[in-house]
Amino acid sequence: MAANMTFKPVRTRQTIQDQVYDQLREALVSGAFEAGESFTISALAEKFMTSHMPVREALRRLAAENALRISSTGTAIVPWLDVTELRQICQARLILEPATAAIAFPLIDADVLRDLNEILPRHTSSADSGDIETMLDANRAFHFRIYRASGNEVLFSQIENLWLRSGPYVRYLSDRMGEMLRSGQKTVFTSRHGDMIDAIHAKDAAAFEQAMHADISATHELLFDLLSSGTT
User: Fold this and answer.
1) For labeling, which of 31, 38, 149, 167 is most exposed (least CB within 10 Å)?
2) Is residue 190 part of a domain?
3) How many domains does the structure of the chain reveal?
4) How far is CA 116 from CA 68, 147, 167, 215, in A?
5) How far is it, in rounded angstroms, from Cα 154 to Cα 226?
6) Where in the sequence is the domain holding 159, given as residue range(s)?
7) pLDDT tens digit string along 112-167?
8) Do 43 and 117 share a domain, yes or no?
9) pTM
């Protein structure tokens, strides 16, 4: 487990297991852990300042979501990168996310549009400055604001799981993103969000869905290229 990884002590009225689960889930989906990284129940319990039981149960929940693997000794392991798995995640995302965006499109009101317009400059400015963590956070906030607008919690939960399982790939890409941004590849990561907002203003549902599809495809194609070439 990364030495600089910090978690908040679990002391609120929410169950301890849920607090441990929520913080680990957020760390995984944001790419805080590298593929193959491992951590023991004891180490996590110490960081969370709690007993082993809630940590063990939180890890079991994450393993059930395929976000972690649990070894025979009880050690939690972040899944290794796998091109076949990445392709399957990409296929699922390209089915679910543009469809959810299409459901959301007629439901996007002034409040949703305001939120998207607030997120967009944070996304682009962080790309300009090379602030990868903020850029990734803004990217997720932009997408999830759209998906939540659909009002379809079944689809949203499936999408959340796909992003959770994408965590190791997010980390792999983020470790290489700084050089890409410096070499002028910013538009790969940022241009489609602006296209989506333009489509909302134009009341063009097809263009909106197409921009969402293109945004997901561009990132995954980049990941495929990096993994296939063995870029380290």
Assistant:
1) 38
2) yes
3) 2
4) 32, 12, 23, 15
5) 32
6) 83-229
7) 999 999 999 999 999 888 899 999 999 999 999 999 999 999 999 999 999 999 99
8) no
9) 0.89
